[in-house]
Amino acid sequence: MRSFVFIVMVIAVAQNAAAYRYALLIGQNDGGRNEDRLRYAEDDTKRFAELLTELAGFERDNVITILGADSSGLIGGWEKIEKKIRGSRTQEDNLFLFYYSGHANSQSLLLGNSTCSLQKLEELLSNIPAGIRIGIFDACQSGAMTAFKGGTRAEPFYLKNQQTIKGQVIIASSAAHERAQESESLKSSIFSFHWLNGLRGSA
What we know:
This protein is of the alpha/beta class. The chain is 33% helix and 22% strand.
């Protein structure tokens, strides 16, 4: 089974040969002083960037990858990619993809000693001038297990009112009380490992 997101990407370009694909990828191992440091979030982000340019038709200049980002770095990257999209003549036919791997809680992405609220992220994503917007979040707020992707047990974070938004897909690695684990043997988070392998064809 091919990934739904991969199918959406193919359809987007098939509809308009002049359309472009843009991506902002954020990887942050450091969730601040109250969180255990992750080992593979930044590596997963680099691997996803490589996949997008190798297999998914993204031009390298249209993929911005930021590792170890704080909130200002995320916003700066967002402004840069949005400027690129607004400079396109085919804005509504374009596709934008946002990927985050790191720590989060029910209110914010945890970016080192700073945070980016999910409300702010929702506003940014909704305002991107692209016909298709995809958000992929490899993060959780659950559990007390070895090497889980940090936080306290709670309902999963999410962007509200998604049913009222057209052209937007949100994919998260964990639901309520699930753990987004990292694996020493895989050298990756379990979600991103299988996600990327699936996109490469194993699905």
